[in-house]
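re: that chain from earlier
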Amino acid sequence: MPLVAGVDSSTQSCKVVIVDAETGELVRSGRASHPDGTEINPSHWWTALMAAIDDAGGLADVSAISVGGQQHGMVLLDSEGRVLRDALLWNDTRSAAEAGEIIDEFGAEFLASTTGSVPVASFTSTKLRWVANHEPQIAAQVAAVCLPHDWLTWRLAGYGPSDESQFGPDLKALATDASDASGTGYFDAARFEYVESILRFAIGKVPILPRLVAPGELAHLPNAANQITAAGIAGGAGDNAAAGFGLGAKTGDVVVSLGTSGTIFAVSQTQTQDPTGVIAGFSAVSFDALPLVCTLNAARVLDSFCELLSVTHDELSALALRAESGSDGVVLVPYFEGERTPNLPTAKASIHGLTLSNNTRVNLARAAIEGMLCGLADGLKALMDAGVTCERVILVGGAAANPAVQKVATEVLGMGVRVPLPGEYVATGAARQAAWALTGKLPVWEVPTLAALEANPKPQILREYKRIQAQLFH
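^ sequence. v structure.
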């Protein structure tokens, strides 16, 4: 059977998986690290990709490849295909004021209805506006704008500056997909086209942009002359969309990711339009929408309580499972880093309901988990209020393997919960996209399950949390 490769070029590292195109079974893998920072020279991504491919045993036997990558990052190219400045990444917040300028110019209603999202500092459009405002000499040289995975796809296809590439700086060979384009702030997913008026306001012109590759199509056909890889190259994907695709998420599934921050996204057949900015109206790898809500406080809440109680994560779980649902009245509002959903940037975390009798390690451990998941429940409610079908939770991220987190999720979120085995689901999703583009048939791959729990709603947990939240912030 043919082999396909998937890449996860994330903020921290580059991971490559090579799998059987028919079954998705892992054959081999590799990885390499990225340097830290909120602005990075893209050459580091290219070096890491080459190292990760080498670590995975090369691409000589691979028939197709696709790159999943961090969203929103801004890569600026001149007419010779050279990178004009370090790429500003999603986590670079210097363009917060420029996000406000774009909203003031176009209005939240127009932006939400056209691009699916109201921009924040992470979006590419705001970064372009920042460059126009603060580095006009750079803005004047911009010939093309692309995203991290677009640039890597272009380089894999053999393009780049003349002295660094086989085929030279053909900027029109840049390609992307709807899932990553939907995070730029200047893409209309419903019309499958860029919004030129936003680009003109952001950077004063409409530069060359990556051509849009439809789901299931190759961006670059197999090319035996390509010295990097003869494989066909798919359009790539944004990281959340690739993860959802790797998990096999379908309409009705809600992916709850417990990373440093939390993300809640669902595969939906209809686009959302939220002028409040809570829901980002992204696109999936397929033809579906991928509405997404982000929270700031997820796994780090548990890290903090592990340190407070001097326990490991396994011990925190064991403590929490000894407590009753509702933590005997102890409630954590988990806004350690402020919060984005709801929008409370200056809020602080707080513990409520303590008495001499309930101030115990087991109640504090369970309150930490309940509070974290109640915070994520705000994101889930936003999706449901927008009409998104939410029937089952797919729980992923480092904290998802915690048995207490799994149990409390069924109580707080009120749905059945499936926990896949830990895996490189962004890279796997990219590989599945490559297999689809290679064969023309959407592959169905089995996703191994670590745990599956039925819904066990305990509405009093969320009700008490919401009562205290309302007292504090409304």
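The chain has two domains: 3-235, 248-474.
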